[in-house]
């Protein structure tokens, strides 16, 4: 889709961490405040500054003591600390609240139009969301809203200092059959939606936010920052070239880091407008074809990166710096910190699992040492049963990955450790995958040769189940067949039939015994009634797999899930 056909919005909370704190201490609203981390040194490092404090020249990255000199009445909120680590739950929970309001608002709007999936919502960070409103706006008749409504939402226009008022006039007095005018009206319609959404966020969370309304991610992000705080800015395509004359290359999304600096140095330029003057051929000399094309597009206000449908974070992470003398020199210290970080991460992973019905499949461990720089290791997380394994198991996997052999002293001390759980899968999908695995497993079991199977075989009529309390198992599924088969074969079944236990319990108990029996490989001299030919190569193969599964509590858990009905086949 051509770039100006899309309607893309960025919503970004104003001085987010400060607002989170102010909400908890409401007498601090409207006062100059900052949030600082690690208080024991020069008043702590400032990570968020509200707009009242910015007026005194206070900036992120300053130390608390330094900021106090600029504004003696400054209030410094402290990030809570737990075991030497910043505790950010408060801000993450507040973020989830905001995203819930956004999701609910979208759902409500779609419902009122009797349509689904009109809005694409992408969580961009703890306090930012991109929205693609193209379908929603195009599902409505092209119509100008009331100017007064828009000004109430503190809507600004970025177009050569033109006021929103004057801009509106031209739509009212000219016909709107040209495409450019129509696109501008679509932006204005989107501003109404955004204004109402911002109002909802404020009413439900007390938080103020700003927004940029334009045609792509780069432009909406840029627009959002133009009139902060508590304002929304429309940036039409026609305004881009004049705006770019005052936009530093480093202020553009994705050009803030190394690449932006490189561009400035190579071409000896500063602004986006200057970048637009660098011709494609020259760009191609310095960058590969794809990057050159992308930079050329950006410099002309074009960015075709789609807003992806992602309402949840891509990963859950935590980390800790160990600067200077704090660097970790002993393996036992690393072990302790891995366990401590993992404890925090696991709590969040569990919460995330509950709230979002998803499980992470991969743990990425990052560490930094002077000798090796930044390094990463990936450790798969076994979620076979729709749940996480015990944290201790992951911790020992991590330690094995980090250290091939036990050491007491580490030669190259660790200055930073981080953990991130990622590659999420729906819990339902995880259970389906494991079910498929179990099915496959039981298909193998079905093939086991049982000694004396013939004598013990029961007639297949469902009447046979009449002695059992629960209804007979109807499904032809291999897992249930296998459980039935095992149940039939065991003397336990008759006992249990007599004392009226439920069929699943009977079968599970029987299966349990069967498995125990299975595990006792050493007793190769089984008596004849004891069913399994342990020398059969196929049985031995199954046995190996069975032991692996038992080892990871796989089987006992399946039984448990079968009994309580969480696993259905
Ligand atoms: N944050 C942080 N460390 C950083 C950057 C940000 O801890 N280096 C935290 C604190 C911020 C929050 O993330 O409050 C959101 O970051 P923003 O960059 O969006 O900044 P703010 O929301 O604080 O301010 P603004 O109003 O400019 O968006
Ligand atoms: Ca913000
Ligand atoms: Ca932000």
UniProtKB/TrEMBL annotation:
> Where is coiled-coil annotated?
none
Keywords for this entry?
DNA damage, DNA repair, Metal-binding, Nucleus, Transferase
Q: Which residue ranges does the record annotate as region Disordered?
A: 452-509
Pfam families on file: IMS (PF00817), IMS_C (PF11799), POLH-Rev1_HhH (PF21704)
Tell me if Metal-binding is a UniProt keyword of this record: yes
Q: What is the superkingdom listed in this entry's lineage?
A: Eukaryota
- UniProt biased composition (Low complexity): 493-503
Localisation: Nucleus
Q: Which PANTHER family match?
A: DNA POLYMERASE ETA (PTHR45873)
- Which taxonomic lineage does the organism of this UniProt entry have? Eukaryota, Metazoa, Ecdysozoa, Arthropoda, Chelicerata
Query: How is this protein named in the record?
Result: DNA polymerase eta
- Residue ranges occupied by any UmuC domain in the UniProt entry: 8-256
Q: Where is the composition biased (Polar residues)?
A: 459-477
